[in-house]
Structures are given as C-alpha cells and as structure tokens.
Amino acid sequence: MPRNWTNGAAAAVLALATPASAQLALPAVPLPPVSGLVERATGTVGDTLAPVVTSARELARLRVVRLDELVRRSRGLIERDVLGAPARRGELLLTDPTPEQLAKAKAAGFAVLENEPIEGLGFTVARLRVPERETLSGAQKRLVGLLPGANVSADLLHFQAGGVAFPAEPQAAAPGASVTTPIGVIDGAPGGAALGEARGFAKNAPLASNHGSAIASLLALCGARDVRFADVYGADPAGGNALALARALGWLVTQGVRVVTISLVGPASPVVAKAVAAAQARGVAVVAAVGNDGPAAPPSYPASYPGVIAVTAVDGRNRALIEAGRASHLDYAAPGADILASDARGRWVRVRGTSYATPLVAARLAAAWGPKRVALARLDQEARDLGPRGADPTYGRGLLCETCRRIH
Predict the structure, then answer these.
(1) Domains in the chain and their CATH numbers?
(2) How much is the average pLDDT of 146-166?
C-alpha cells in the first residue's frame, strides 16, 4: 500500500456529469474531462466518481480503459496514431515543410489543407489530409518513409488534468496580493466575468467550460489581474489537439504574457515541443500539470518538455495525491485537493487534480517575476520542503502556495 494512502481516503479521480444531450454517456470509468466531448458549460456539476484506486498499476490500467472508450465513443472523429495515442482523425502535421516535401506528399495522395506560420513563434505547420480508406497510423508510417528527415506527426490530443464535483460553500478568504505580471492560460474558456481577453482555437471557441472557469477562479484568488485565455477545446470533440496548443501559445506570446499555465496532459508532440521551445526563447515561462494517471503512466507533456515547470498536487494534509502522474522532472507541488474553485455558472465546487495546483504555481511565479533564474530562485526560497530532504520525485523542490486556497 502506498505510504501516502490512509484508510478511508478516497483517491477519487473526479469527472463531470452533464445531461445526455450535452455529452457522451459516461462509462463505468469516466473519460478524461475533455471539453467538447464530455463537458459543456450548460452541464450540471454532479457527483460522479471513478472507483477508488489504490495502486499505480490500477491507475495505469484505468488510463488505458479511458483512452479506449474515448476513441470508441468519438463518433469517428478521433483515431490512434502510430504509437497508439489519440489524435484528430485523418490528419497529419508537417513542421517547417519544404516545397519539395509538400510536392512529394501531394503526389502520394496527401491533400495539403493549409500551410501557415504559427503566429508569434517563427515556424510553420502544414496540415495534410490522409487519403481515403487509409488509417492514420498507416498513413503516418508511409509518409515518414516517403519523406526521410521530415518532421511528421499526428495532431495529438491533450486532456484536462482534473475534474469538479459536489457544490460547496467556501469559507471566507481574501484574494492574494495583486499580481500584475501578464499570465496566459491554455485550457477551456472561463465563464462569468473573465479576468481578461479570451480567444478561441477550436470550433465554437471561446466557449465557457467548468475546467477553464476553475482555473480562472484560482488565478483570481491568487491575485492575478492581467490574464489572457486561449480556448483550445470549444465544442470540438477533437479539441485540445497539438496544432491548437501551438497556435494558442503563439497568440499568448504576441499578447505579451510572461507566464503560461497549462493544466493539460498528452503524449510528446513535435509541434507542441517546438512551440514551447520557441515561446521559452522569447522569454515566456511555461508551467504545466503532471496529470492524474498515476506514477506508472508514461511521462506527461507539456510538463516533461525541457525547461517547463512541472507541477504536482497535494491534499489538505499536504500528502501527494495518489493519482498524481509524473514528468521527466518535477519542480513544485501545490494544493490540488480539499480546495474549492468556481464552475462555469459561478458556483463554488470541490476540485481535485494536478490541474488546480498548476495555476497556483503560475501565479506565484508571476508574482516573483524577473529573469527566469531569479524568479525560480525566489520560488525555491518560498517552497516548503516535503518528503525526503531536498528535491525529490514526489514533491519536487517543495510546496508552494500552501495558504492560497479556498477550503470547505
């Protein structure tokens, strides 16, 4: 039994329950709360809980079940790539393609849907339509063989790393000291009075979502005053895709944000990796969640890209969440359970997941903003060491924002 697990503790992976007309029916194990597929702003906050899990192996198994269900119930809009990861059906991406590469792809039956630069990041991505009757994985293998050295990938999907359940009334809590450093959010759009501009990068986006609203409310609680929201989900069943994330990050760079918080997880994507590196080269710090698939799951991205500040979560007793995933490195922990946030209707709800720890760390980084090394040194001084002395794979370099949370 994991040492962070105690009798009676429910390490529940929380999901949204919404009307049948607004979502796919939830299987026995809830799907990841992907806006546009499972969550709608019009949905009600329910109390659907995944079965209690007590081991990393079981969490890893449930992850496979959820992904299988996601593909099966996607109405044919999601397909697996060559490595088995969910992606937008029937499309491949070429990063910085040459005219010769595009010509070869077209001659081989791939239609070029667009070939446009990513705003603010200095590179180009071409979208290619896979020939009819060819599977995504088969077409990907063929195109890689056809274009040696080209950067070919599927339009891989990313999932929100948390859920909400149980409406609750918060205790009084004063907002944190004002944080004026511009912060960017890549997620669903917030509902109600937003902290700043929202722009959509998916069908019918920006569209208010419970997950995006929760992130916005936690940033507001931390004193954030200048926030830009990039909605990569909208009403798109294949929202959260790699191209949407890259475009969102590029737009946020043009908006002058200094810190970007991403409470999403997915597989390694060449397009997102290049976008993150380009944003970092322009002085932007990226903060990302490690996800909720447990320590036996593969490393999560974008948290595992070089230089990204990877965040895990703790409960009200400062114990690491049993479902917290991992990254190739871990920087900080922050509260991600036994806390409240606002849903798209403005109601306070209990939330759980590494999703909700991530904006807390982003807000602290923005408050300490300066040259990145200086800002991180300030956070290291602020972080409270947990677990073994010094940095460790469970809590990183320590706990931040211990008191910046609403509790029930």
Answers:
(1) 20-75 (no CATH), 79-156 (3.30.70), 159-382 (3.40.50.200)
(2) 87
